[in-house]
Request: fold
Amino acid sequence: MRPEISVIMAVYNREKYLRQAIASVLAQSYDNWELIIIDDGSTDKSMEIASSFADSRIRIYNRPHKGCWHTKNYGISISRGKWILFLDSDDFLSKDYIKLGMEAITTFLGHEYYYPGKFKIVQEDGSLTDRIWRYREIPFEKRELLIHYFMNEMVNAIPHPGSFIKREVFFDYGAFDGSLFNFGDMAYTVQNGMMIDYKYLQRLEGYYNRQHSSQTNKNFGEKAKVIARLMQWVVENYPPKLYIRGFTAISNKKEKNIELHRFLIRRFTQLAENAGEHGKPFVDSARIHYNLLKNIRGV
Reply:
């Protein structure tokens, strides 16, 4: 029987956390799932731990190290479920999480990408904290808010782990950028968010996000590179009115170009200051737009 949902878990040196992640899937009250575990060339005992679980619904693959997003793309390509749920190999689920997500899909029909309103944050040992990681509601008719939040607040309003995503989304709109070290989900939602039909599930909870020093999003140098590159992509592909307040009130073309570069110089400078020693990509980007502004002004 074809599983209704494919849980995809990319693994790279996660021996400390992997057992709890897998066990949380096996403990689900909803049982029509497959768990695809792709080891991304781990050098620890991750494969040994994954192979210790005996369940016909678990499929395990061992591949050379190519990075998180390349590995998740492979999982998508071999998945059989109508829906895809990404579970990071250092996180875990409450026992009713998939059941609640599937019930929400049947309650709110017709969407492509259902995402939770929040994650609960746990410490490295798995113990619960009082911290909540909240996501924002993006109504279908206001999808441009994705671009506004990213360019003005560096907010990724929609998560990929814990979300229930139609498999066809990744074939209709494209896969993750496998060349990225981190923040591939932010790049995906920014670049494809204007096309995807999202549904915010405020009451869906039970995804536990573990905080620890070896998370890929703790690599701030790579983060700066990805964000600077993604901001430039936005400039080249989306109209400034989506992220610059009052832009449509400017009628003169030259003044519009001046306002665009002034905005970008401010944002890149702010980000460079916040990034400290990792801020070079933002400094370089600010310099590019400063020179473009000088050319427009004829300085």
Q: What stands out?
A: The mean pLDDT is 94. The chain has two domains: 5-218, 221-297. The chain is about 40% helix and 20% strand.
